[in-house]
Amino acid sequence: MQIVSNNPRRSTDRGLATVAPATLPSVSSRLADITDLTPVSSVEFITEITPCLMLVAPVGMDEDAQAAWFEIAYMALEGIPIALLRRGCKAALRTADHPSKIVREIIKAIGEDWDWRKKHNRAPAAPAAPEPVAIEDNSPLPFDQIKSMSPALLSLGRSQGWVRQEDYDRLTRKDEAA
How many CB atoms lie within 10 A of CB 12? Predict the structure, then answer.
């Protein structure tokens, strides 16, 4: 006996539900979702969370109160990636019965996953920049250090007093003789 559903994405054959492969998310999109830490934009945030508020907002909640609620909810969920927000909003739509419970339900639904992402998907810290070498005074450098300098560095050293004129002349005479 074959039972066919009106839903084109789902049909049953002998009691087993099947889903068309095209409706399943790809492995790469699922992996991207797991590692995504890009914060949701304010527009995406409002788009995703508005149905939650509309479902449970009291009749007396005017536009100013709703705008304040959105701002506070955005601050409470600061940095949340879009996929986690969507999943949290779906859970809040099913369970929240008051505006004060929406954010709590979102965090309850996705909190562990969000914490895991933040803990495991951090970019490695950039290596610390080397400490700059401090030149305590503009005293000239020894000749053996300046003889391997490039012409541009020699010129800079001459202007800063690190290369004495006689050492510069000595180097340029050597180059001319060669």
Answer: 13
Q: What angle do CA 117, 67, 43 make, to 5 degrees?
A: 45
- Above 50 in pLDDT, residue 92? yes
Specify the DSSP element, H or E, that contains 84: helix 82-95
- Token pair listed for 130: 């080397």
Which has the closest alpha carbon to 114: 100, 124, 103? 103
Give Cα 100 distance to the centre of its chain: 28
CA distances from 30 to 24, 37, 83, 86, 172 (A): 10, 13, 10, 14, 65
Amino acid identity of 158?
Answer: R
> Tokens 């895991």 appear where?
116
For residue 97, what is the enclosing H or E element?
Answer: none
Q: Is 21 exposed, middle or buried (0-12, 13-18, 19+ CB in 10 A)?
A: exposed
**Global confidence as pTM:** 0.52
Residue-wise pLDDT tens digits, 110-126:
989 888 888 877 655 66
Contact at 8 Å (CB) between 56 and 96? yes
